[in-house]
Amino acid sequence: MSPCPDTATDSGTVTNALKNRWVKIAGQVVVMTALVLGLVAFVGNNKSVTLTVDGQASTVSTFGSTVADVLAESEVEVGELDDVTPAVGEEISDGASIEVVTAKPVNVNVDGDSSTVHTTAATVRELLDELEVTDKSALSAPLTAELASVGAVTISTPKRVTIAVDGKTRKEVTTATTIGDLLQEHDIKVRKDDKLSVAAKEPVEEGIKVKVTRIDRERVEETESIAFGTDETTNSGMYADEEKVTRAGEAGERVKVYEIVLTDGKETSRKLVKEKVTREPVSQKVTVGTKKRPAKVNNANVGGTWQALAECESGGNWSINTGNGYSGGLQFSASSWLGAGGGKYAPYAYMATPSEQIATAEVLRGNGGWGHWPACASKLGLL
C-alpha cells in the first residue's frame, strides 16, 4: 500500500489557512493602529479659542494655527485700521483669546475743520489721545462718553488771544469757537453802534487780536452869543471922523442842540439838529458926522506963550479929549468954548485947529485975563 497523499495535502491546507489568518489579523492591526494614530492627531490639532469682536465674545473650535486662520474660519474680515490682538500673523494655541476692535467712522470737527476719522477708540478721551489733542479743549461730549453713542465730536482747542476794549488790553487763553462766543465768555457786551475789528461770526484763531470800539451818541446843548448890528444916522454938524453912540447895542442869545458821536470817549463828529433864539440882539445906534474937518495946523508953527501954556495944560496935545469935561490944547470946558465963540469952528475945542483954539482963547483972555488958566499961568509967570 502506498503512502496516503491525502494526509499531506490536508496538512498543507491547514498551514496555508493559518498563514492567511495571521496575515488578516496583521492587516487589521495596521488599520486599527492608523485609526488610533489619526484620532490622536485629530484631537491634538483641534483647538478651542475665545474670539471677541467689538465686545461680543464667542468660543471657536479650529484646526488653524494662526490668528488669521481663526478669523478666516470665523468669516471675520479685518481692515488695516482695525485693532487685532494678538497680531494677525501670530500663532495660537488651545485656549488662546483673540480680540478684534473694528475701526468705526466718527465725524470730528476741530477748530472749525470737519473730517471723518476711522478710529478704534471707545471713548472721547481715547479719541483725543489718538488725535494728540489736549483734554483741556472744549468738547461737545464728556471725556467719558462712548463714541458709539456720540456719533460726532466737536473740539475747540485752547488758543491765545488779545482783547482790547474800554481802554484796556488783555491777553487771554480761550476755547471759544467764535469771536462772539469769546466776548460772551468774558462778559463783554457789544452794543448796536459799537464796532468789532473781527466779525462776531468769525472763528477764533491762535494769536488773534480783537478790538471793540465803543460808539456813543449824545445830544448836547450849547449857548452862543448873537452879535448885535449897528444902525447909523448922519449929522452934518459933526466932523466926518466923529461918531456918537446914542444907544448901546446888546448881544442876543441862541441855544443850539447838537448830536455828537464819541469814539472810545472822544468826539469824532457832530451834527446840528435844532436851534432856537432865546434873546434877540439889540442893535447899536450911532450918529456919525459928515462935516469935513479943516486941515490942522502943524503944532510946530504954534509958538510963544500959547504954546507954552498948551504944553503945561495938555502936554502940547491940541486934539486931546480925555472925557473929563475939558478938551483941546488949552483945556476948554464946553461952556467956555461955546461962550467965547468957539462953536463957529467946531462943537468942541479938541475938534478945532490950534489956531482956532488960540483965537478963541484970546477972546477969553480979553475978558478975565490969564486967570482962566490959573495954575499954568502962575507957573509960567503970567499972573
Q: From the alpha-carbon coordinates, what is the Rg to the nearest angstrom?
A: 65 Å
Assembly context of the chains: single chain
Number of strands: 20
CATH architecture annotation name of the largest domain: Roll
For this structure, what is the CATH homologous superfamily of the largest domain? Beta-grasp domain
Task: Work out the count of structural domains.
Answer: 5
- Average pLDDT works out at 85
N→C terminal distance: 239 Å
Sheet bearing the most strands, described? 4 strands, mixed
Give a quick rundown of the structure:
By secondary structure, the chain is an alpha+beta fold.
Which key terms come to mind for this protein?
383 residues, alpha+beta, Ubiquitin-like (UB roll), 5 domains, four-stranded mixed sheet, 9 helices, disordered N terminus
What is the secondary structure topology, with strand pairs?
Blueprint: H1 5-45, E1 47-53, E2 56-62, H2 67-73, E3 83-85, E4 97-101, E5 104-110, E6 113-119, H3 124-131, E7 138-139, H4 147-150, E8 152-156, E9 159-165, E10 168-174, H5 179-185, E11 195-196, E12 209-213, E13 215-226, E14 230-239, E15 243-247, E16 252-263, E17 266-279, E18 284-291, H6 304-314, E19 326-327, E20 332-333, H7 334-339, H8 354-365, H9 374-379
Parallel strand pairs: 1-4, 5-8, 9-12, 14-18
Antiparallel strand pairs: 1-2, 3-4, 5-6, 7-8, 9-10, 11-12, 13-16, 15-18, 16-17, 19-20
